[in-house]
Design a protein that fits this description.
This protein has about 260 residues and is α/β, with parallel strands linked by helices. It contains eleven helices and seven strands. The protein has a seven-stranded mixed β-sheet, with helices on both faces. Helix 1 (about 15-30) packs across helix 11 (about 235-255). The protein binds adenosine-5'-triphosphate (ATP) and magnesium ion.
Length: about 260
């Protein structure tokens, strides 16, 4: 049965999509059948997997809002073992539609039930908000993977995210495991980054992954070529870091 992981942080631009795509890729390359579900109307994970959004006629919106069978909206990616449920431009209209649906927080969970036996991992790339799409991801997930950029006020946003995750755990998804913080775009030559990283580790202790992801230009370039880093530049420091992070994710999810 797949482990479902929500890559989430309501703060924008912290590395959610980069993390979802690249951890997803390395999970797949390690032989784990992986499904990446793009829950962000911006569709960055979809684009980064080399899928043209304008050509999409079925996507996660059709599944969530119009009841299309999930299997009809799953695409192959250039990486064997990595499948994608893409987000077309329509997803931007999903939240207002979903707001009036009964059981609106559980839609994704129900969609994932029949998919769980088919995969080892399901990853959700969440939008930068705590709206209904992110809530659906947290209700459907077994655990969270939270990218945090080491900058001013990072801890403040992180505390409110942790509170939201804890509330969802209490009210809607008791089996949700809170945790899995990864420091992203680190540049430890900067004092602020060092300080913030130190604070996050002091506060969240074991929840923080040992591996952090350095700022690396190759990671920023890869999506514009529609490629995960393992295809774009597998020897870059960004690629090696995501490989190590994926190893930690596997250990944490599978072994405890
Ligand atoms: N380690 C890194 N080094 C350099 N650039 C990075 C790194 N990680 C992400 N980026 C770049 O930073 C920008 C934001 O990253 P990303 O899109 O992954 O964040 P996000 O949290 O998904 O953003 P949003 O909240 O808008 O969905 C992107 O242009 C991405 O290519
Ligand atoms: Mg994103």
């Amino acid at each position: 049965m797949a482990r479902a992981i929500a890559v989430c942080n309501q703060k924008g631009g912290v590395g959610k999509s980069t993390t979802a795509v690249n951890v997803g890729s390395y999970l797949a390359l390690s032989g784990r059948a992986t499904l990446l579900i793009d829950l962000d109307p911006q569709g960055n994970a979809t684009t980064a997997c080399g899928i043209q959004r304008s050509s999409l006629d079925r996507d996660v919106y059709e599944v969530l809002v119009n009841g299309l069978p999930a299997s009809d909206a799953i695409l192959k990616t250039p990486i064997e073992q990595l499948d994608l449920m893409p987000a077309s431009l329509d997803l931007a209209g999903a939240e207002p539609h979903l707001a009036s649906v009964e059981g609106r927080e559980q839609l994704l969970r129900r969609i994932c039930e029949p998919l769980k036996p088919l995969y080892d991992f399901i990853l959700f790339d969440c939008p930068p908000s705590l709206g209904l799409l992110t809530v659906n991801a947290l209700v459907a997930a077994d655990s969270t993977l939270i990218p945090v950029q080491c900058e001013y006020l990072a801890l403040e946003g992180l505390n409110s995210l942790m509170r939201a995750v804890t509330l969802i755990k209490q009210a809607l998804n008791p089996s949700l495991r809170v945790g899995g913080i990864v420091l992203t775009m680190t540049d430890f030559r900067a004092n602020l980054a060092k300080e913030v990283a130190g604070e996050v580790k002091r506060y969240f202790k074991d929840l923080v992954f040992d591996t952090s992801i350095p700022r690396n230009i190759r990671l920023a370039e890869a999506p514009s070529f529609g490629k995960p880093i393992c295809l774009y530049d597998p020897h870059s420091t960004g690629a090696l870091s995501y490989q190590l992070l994926t190893q930690e994710v596997i250990e944490k999810e599978v072994d405890g």
